[in-house]
Amino acid sequence: MRIARFTEGGITRFGKIVDSKVVDLSGVDGVGGSMRQLLENLPKLRTNLEAARGPAYALQSIKFEAPINDPQKFLAIGMNYKAHAEEARAAGIPIPTSQLWFNKQVSCLNGPYDPIELPKVVEKLDYEIELGVVIGQRCRRMKAAEARSVIAGYLVVNDVSARDWQHRSPTFTLGKSFDTHGPIGPWLTTDDEVPDPLALEMSLTVNGQERQRMITNDMIYSIYDQIEYLSTVMTLEPGDILATGTPAGVGAASGRLLQAGDVVRAQIERLGYIENRVVAEI
């Protein structure tokens, strides 16, 4: 199932994508306005959601919103693709010897087709396509072998990065958390729709020019290893978003950073694409 948040007629609601339409799910008992709550109740709601035959709208007639509007956590791992780690090494950046995690503040969340702002105080704006993993069950101290059982689904993430701000602090958080710098979507694809999340092709273009392309099996730490590591420290909650690393080809490595007017398209096999225009802060 592909579950979206969308706005039509001034009302934002949940829907499921069926062919070229979105079917309104707001009539299903138990579906409120919170994706976090929906995911928590998904096991008992699934049958009714799959059977729902509510009003349907053409995709081009609605506005897609960020699929998750209220996560408690938006966490991201750094240098988790082998080729990306090598390009970082070549640039003189030390390679971490363990998983390197940082926060993207949830206030940076952005819709799948909404503009990315280039702040006046940022000189080095960059892109990073990432597979987003969304937690579906509250969990602590999960083992990697069992970690897939707590995954609700997947979405496309662009871990937009203000490199100059990122490197001012060892935590990366400020440079990763400017408003609008967390576009996600276009919808949540549930885990059962993805046979192997470690065998998905991902690609990113800027103004139609390819910058990144890789298979998710190039990860140094798999998504299951990531869940085990994180849940050793903290309880993961339904709706939490894990951005699982970006492949080689980021702008910082080539000097091709984002400018106002650029259009960034990030696409992952089976999950769809997000596309965002960079606009200068007014």
Q: What do you see in this structure?
A:
The structure is a single chain. This protein is of the alpha+beta class and 282 residues long. The protein has 2 domains: 2-65, no CATH class; 74-280, Fumarylacetoacetase-like, C-terminal domain (Fumarylacetoacetate hydrolase, domain 2, Alpha-Beta Complex), CATH 3.90.850.10. It has 7 helices and 19 strands. The chain starts with a strand and ends with a strand.
What's a quick, concise take on this entry?
With 282 residues, this protein is α+β, with helices and mostly antiparallel strands. It has helices spanning 35-40, 42-51, 82-90, 163-166, 173-176, 223-233, 251-254, and strands at residues 2-8, 11-18, 21-24, 56-58, 63-65, 74-78, 100-103, 109-110, 116-118, 125-126, 129-135, 151-158, 161-162, 182-190, 201-206, 209-215, 241-243, 263-268, 272-280.
**Termini distance?**
39 Å
Mean pLDDT: 96
Count of helix runs: 7
Instruction: Give the tally of structural domains.
Output: 2
Largest sheet: 12 strands, mixed
- Roughly what fraction of the amino acids lie in strands? 25-35%
Q: What is the H-and-E element order? A: EEEHHEEEHEEEEEEEHHEEEHEHEE
Classification by helices and strands: alpha+beta
Oligomer: single chain
Shape: globular
Give the beta-strand count: 19
Secondary structure: helix percent = 10-25%
Give me the CATH architecture of the largest domain, please: Alpha-Beta Complex
The CATH homologous superfamily of the largest domain corresponds to Fumarylacetoacetase-like, C-terminal domain
The CATH class of the largest domain is identified as Alpha Beta
User: Which consecutive residue ranges, at least 5 long each, have pLDDT under 50?
Assistant: none
